[in-house]
TrEMBL record:
Keywords: FAD, Flavoprotein, Monooxygenase, Oxidoreductase. Its cofactor is FAD. Belongs to the UbiH/COQ6 family. Gene3D superfamilies: FAD/NAD(P)-binding domain. This is FAD-dependent monooxygenase. It comes from Novosphingobium aureum. Coiled coil: none annotated. GO terms for molecular function: FAD binding; monooxygenase activity; oxidoreductase activity, acting on paired donors, with incorporation or reduction of molecular oxygen. Residues 17-353 form the FAD-binding domain.
């Protein structure tokens, strides 16, 4: 073969079914779920996987709903993750630790309300599975510098000079998605003027697999159960929401001051506490894309919708996107359509738009309802919570929502 022929062949882009921009929790789950259905993909991520999974690099944890756990199980991740997640057996919801709390505890045959995982453990499981999957071509420490979407396919040029091709481009780049913005998607956005402080805690008493959602006027204060560490120390994840005006002062606190402020808001429910993970913080904003598809483009996860963490549904909503997109593509390809077909994308958008909007509307409403200060609003909230506590049907409805088992679920999330 001549040198010119070699040069010509190297210039031909490697084509797969999907190009997924973003190899985070949602993007990599999509690649693995697609691979299980025989759909090939390029996954492009500018991050270094070794840095993302380094010990102590990320102290965050995620609540994985029952539906999301079904998805992980159906794509072969259960054996990697099963022993790493802490079951959530109940959720205690209270207005500032005043009387009138709600206890959500499913019946014995209904299973748990979800599982808590360290983000690092989720990433390790996803990345290990991706390395073993021939249907996934994983390109790291690089990013897209050119995205072309044409009538017959998409083409992406990477910062390292490689050119990749596919039938469909999927943006899973997170809240600041350049692909979504380049496509001109209109967004509904607002700033809650809140900041979430996230860390891990060691605590004296066992959490008994209970998650606490304590509402204060400045924002919710969540304690989420984690497995005991190797030394047998009890642990929980903390998500503390504060007013943006107070955030700088809290960020400037040393660890002892920070722990003291946290302890005051816990009212001793878990005994003495200390930090078990680095402190992180991020601003809380709402955004929702008016549409989630365009010509040969689908937008998923935080690139399509971002919400307040009050109900822990952000990642779970992205995983519902994954299940729906894979189901739509699989059924279409079985009929001879290609992944980028406009009919398939229209079906995906119709399916996801209403569900994501409803979840986000409820989350936003709760944030505003519990953020109203004063004794009268607090009394009204606690009256309503007391009514929910006494009505089994209402409690079951809210528990199904928490488990992600409501609505038109994709096959992969049904169990």
């Amino acid at each position: 073969m001549s040198e010119s022929q070699n040069s010509l062949e190297s210039a031909v882009p490697e084509r797969r079914d999907l190009i997924i921009l973003g190899g985070g929790l949602v993007g990599m789950t999509l690649a693995l779920a697609a691979a299980r259905a025989g759909i090939t993909s390029h996954v492009i991520d500018r991050a270094d996987p070794a840095e993302l999974t380094a010990e102590g690099a990320d102290g965050r944890a995620s609540a994985i709903s029952t539906a999301s756990w079904n998805l992980f199980s159906n794509i072969g991740l259960a054996r990697r993750l099963d022993k790493l997640g802490c079951p959530i057996a109940s959720i205690a919801v209270t207005d500032g630790m005043k009387p009138g709390r709600i206890d959500f505890t499913p019946k014995q045959d209904e299973g748990t309300l979800g599982r808590m995982f360290a983000n690092r453990d989720l990433r390790l499981a996803l990345f290990e599975a991706a390395r073993e999957e021939p249907a996934i071509a994983w390109h790291v420490r690089t990013e897209a510098v050119r995205r072309d979407r044409g009538e017959h396919g998409v083409e992406v040029e990477l910062s390292d000079g490689r050119v990749l091709a596919a039938s469909l481009l999927v943006a899973a780049e997170g809240r600041q998605s350049p692909t979504r913005d380049e496509a001109g998607f209109k967004m509904a956005r607002w700033d809650y003027r809140h900041r979430a402080f996230v860390t891990g805690l060691f605590h004296e008493k066992s959490h008994d697999n209970t998650a606490w959602e304590i509402f204060y006027p400045a924002g919710p204060f969540a304690l989420l159960p984690l497995l005991d560490d190797a030394q047998g120390r009890h642990r929980s994840a903390l998500v503390w929401t504060v007013d943006e005006n107070d955030a700088a002062g809290i960020a400037a606190m040393n660890d002892a001051m920070f722990v003291n402020e946290v302890a005051q808001r816990m009212h001793g429910v878990l005994g003495a506490i200390s930090l078990s993970a680095p402190r992180m913080s991020y601003p809380l904003r709402f955004h929702h894309a008016g549409k989630v598809v365009d010509r040969r483009l689908a937008v998923i996860g935080d690139a399509a919708h971002g919400m307040h963490p009050i109900a822990g549904q952000g990642l779970n909503l992205g995983l519902r996107d994954v299940g729906a997109l894979v189901e739509v593509l699989t059924e279409g390809m079985r009929l001879g359509l290609e992944p980028g077909d406009a009919q398939l994308l229209a079906r995906y958008e119709k399916w996801r738009s209403l569900d994501s909007f409803m979840v986000m509307s409820v989350t936003d409403g709760l944030t505003r309802l519990f953020g109203i200060p004063g004794k009268l609003p607090s009394a009204a909230r606690r009256l309503g919570m007391g009514a929910v506590q006494r009505l089994p049907a209402l409690k079951s409805f809210f528990m199904d929502e928490a488990r992600g088992m409501s609505g038109a679920l994709p096959e992969l999330l049904r169990g």
